Amino acid sequence: MSVSRHAAMPSGPIPTYDEGAEFMGKARNKLVKSKTKAAKKVKKKRSVTKKVEPKLVKATKKPAEETSAKKNVPHHSTAEEMASRQREISVAEFFTKNRHLLGFDNPRKALLTTIKEGVDNSLDACEEAGILPEVKVVIAPGKEEDRFIVTIEDNGPGILKKQIPKIFAKLLYGSKFHRLKMSRGQQGIGISAAGMYGQLTTGKPISIISKTSRNKPAHHYDLEIDTKRNEPRIIVDETVDWPIERGTKVEIELEAKFQKGRQSVEEYLEQTAIANPHVLLRFLTPDGETKTYARASKELPVETKEIKPHPFGVELGVLIKMLHDTKARTLQSFLHSEFSRVSSSVARAICEKAKVSERSRPTRIARQEADNLFKAINQTKIMNPRTDCLSPIGEELIQAGLKKQIEADFYTSVTRPPSVYRGNPFQIEAGLAYGGSLPAEGLARVLRYANRVPLLYQQSACAMTRSVLNTAWRNYALSQSAGALPSGPLVIIIHMASVWVPFTSESKEAVAHYPEIIKEVRLALQECGRRLAVFIRRRRKAAESQRKKDYIQQYIPHIAIALREMLELSERQETTIVKQLTDLLERSHS
Amino acid sequence: MSKLAAQIKDTAASVRTKIQRRSKPTLAFPLRSLSNVNYHPKQGFFQLKGKKKVRTLTVGTVKTFAQTLRMMSQAKTLVEDDEIMTKREAYYVSKNWQDARFDEQPESDTVIDDIEALFQVNREQLGFIPEEKGGEVAGKLVVIDRDSETGKELHIDCTKFGSGAYSIPISIEHLKFETKAKFVLAIETAGMFQRLVKHNYWRKANCILISMGGVPTRACRRFIRRLADELKLPVYAFVDCDPYGMFNIYRTLKVGSGNAAHINRYFCVPKASFLGVTPQDIIDYKLPTHPLKEVDIKRARDALKNDPFVQHYKPWQDSIRQLLEMGVRAEQQAFAVHDLNYVIEHYLPEKLAATKKFLP
């Protein structure tokens, strides 16, 4: 509870960025990443946290505790001595030391994470601006071995000149933290972290060109991040000629390793293409190969609505912070206005249960009776949250995506009705591709997505995988060993859309095992499985009757030959016998 | 057209008629197993009870059905041309039938046996002959055969083969016989036969010695049958004391087999009786033994339960029970334990002194 995600938010020192409506996608990305970092910091650097985030209620007592703990150490320090050693650590410095937390564990993963951040940002930006995305990814070999220059270019709305430095060279830049809205931005870290990684491993700045409209010039920046101050340092700032209508191009040189196969850039792009059939992706590999993932649909995803948090999804720390920050004067109006599904009467009921007056001031409650209020909320019956804030891919488009990238004989997909886990609305979709060019031997391939973003790592730790394993695929005419994935020429795709995807860890690679989620995935898979079984059984039956037909055709002529020989028949009579026998046997079922 | 060829043609015509009437053609074969035979001592051989196996043309049977008809057509040609074909040759001829060919000879043998049963004839009459050797003969018998080129009669004296023997041909219906022997001794093993031939036992006992070499072939059974019928000779079987010797060899010799029940009337020797070795002989002659194998015990119990011949003769049931109780078996060559020629000097003379006591 002490590191509850919202409570730990360093809301104070983070500048706000509200005017950048055309680039909300990026802003959102920052929000998510800031959560992770802040939480880590609270855990590991308590004494520092206090100074960076003075508003943090839980942290206020920490220095005293630490001082007493240190008294057991042989060399005793005074509070003053310790104070002299205590200094601010910038988030940028922190992450320089802990880059594995951001998905930059090794050169191979660093390359993937960089591209993933860039592409996800581009897609979010395009979709918010209502533009059909066209994204080009180029990986070019650098001058030195193990170095690559990654370029991600989109046809998005572009970024205002003055925002570029902060977006690309300052960590934890954003302000829309409290909004609950389905978006890609849960991948862990923004493009600025990728830029920082590049800077760290090659010493080269991140380069950005952006153009917001045909009539305006394009801006080119080369930026470094001042890791101590977490502030952008501008190396180049110029206006350039860029013969496109609008868009953004990001270039980062970094130490990396280019590989094919599993968990590769290519796999990420392919899976992105499947779940985002409205996207046109181009990929130029270091070997000079060009890959195009064509667009299969011109339909943009439905713009998602922002919702207020549901009382059941809020933790104590968050509740306290909300009580502090609210503009509402009474507790009843606070509950009614800050949460979804809390009517005045429900608010009154909560207050009664908590034994506090509905007219009490929220800030007072925050200090004294938040605990009771929290318990009361969880004991009150409250309607499930609205679910129209979700934008699933849709059954048709899942199939379109699968058909585009996977050549199979059978496709099916299911979009479940929305459901709720711990106060958060979510929606599960599943799809299958079977047969065709898929390898007949070996286990099925599972493609997992959270808010349209492919999850490539930690398959076995994911709730979606658990559901696949727990589904009895043998009922659906597939073979499956105990505790294993089904085997056969099969690709399983699962998508979870939610305003808040519960990842198991900061690495954001596996979905946590909530029973509601596991159940919804299972129901979706079962429906897909039933349809697949119909297909497989029908095909087997057809093959069976063809085999029967072939078998009959093989031997009937011999019966006719024998009868012609014994009865001295003519060839015409022999042909008649063949015809009559064929009719006779094909009609029969045995 | 011969009667048999006409029969084949009729069957083919009935198949065609069914097809023309859009109903599934069938072929009805007598069921060839012990469960479909009964035994009457008056006739003296296993007879079919009339259970039939009807093979209807379906998807599952279309291959066998086609093969049976093609083999029938082959038989008709053989009969019409007065030609013969070994079972092995029939198997090779089927290699011309593309998809309907036989992969292994046992498959074609079964189809031939089916056709044989279908027309209630023996396969030799259909023109199919076996590869197997018929058995060997030594002793006081003159076989009158014909030279296949000149047609002249050949008198073959079976006493004149020295340490060798006369081979029973595959087809024996044309043979004639002359003899002054008192009985026929049918012997299971070639080894015992050799010993008796070497010491000219036939001269001493005034008999005909025949080596069956395991279960007697049809030709061998038919040969012995004709000796028994036409020369009015008693036939004594001398086999190992085990269920195989008693029921596979002796019983087949005497009353025929379940599998070939449709032709038993020609191929068995109802007058045969069992000289030995009996379970009692093991005790009386103190023969060295081997324990009964599991397959022996199973065979013995099976005979008690299912064999109409055993069920008809109490002495046989007693002997089997005695054997099962003793839990041992003895080979006919076990007499060598006393002396190499003990069997000639003691055992056979002593047994032949009381032929009435032989097991039926």
Main beta sheet strand tally, sense and closure of chain A: 8 strands, mixed
The main sheet of chain B comes to: 6 strands, mixed
Number of domains of chain A: 4
CATH arch. level architecture of the largest domain in chain B: 3-Layer(aba) Sandwich
Q: Name the chain pair whose interface involves the most residues.
A: A-B, 22 and 30 residues
Strands across the major sheet of chain A, in which order?
5-4-3-6-2-1-7-8
CATH class of the largest domain in chain B: Alpha Beta
Percent helix of chain B: 40-55%
Query: Could you say which overall geometry of chain A the principal axes of the C-alpha atoms support?
Result: globular
Task: Write a brief caption for the model.
With 590 residues, chain A is of the alpha+beta class.
Outline the structure in words.
The complex is a heterodimer of chains A (590) and B (360). With 590 residues, chain A is an alpha+beta fold. Chain A is built from 18 helices and 16 strands. In chain A, a hairpin with a 5-residue loop joins strand 14 and strand 15 (486-487). In chain A, helix 1 packs across helix 6, helix 10 packs antiparallel against helix 13 (362-368) and helix 17 runs antiparallel to helix 18 (571-587). Chain A is globular and about 120 Å long. Residues 1-71 of chain A have low confidence and may be disordered. Chain B has two domains: 3-129, Arc Repressor Mutant, subunit A (Orthogonal Bundle); 136-357, Dna Topoisomerase Vi A Subunit, Chain: A, domain 2, CATH 3.40.1360. Chain B is of the alpha/beta class and 360 residues long. Chain B starts with a helix and ends in an 8-residue tail after the last helix. Chain B has a six-stranded mixed sheet, with helices on both faces. In chain B, strands 9-8-11 form a three-stranded antiparallel sheet, with no helix packed on it. Chain B contains 14 helices and 17 strands. Chain B is globular. Chains A and B meet through helix 17 and helix 18 of A and helix 1 and helix 2 of B.
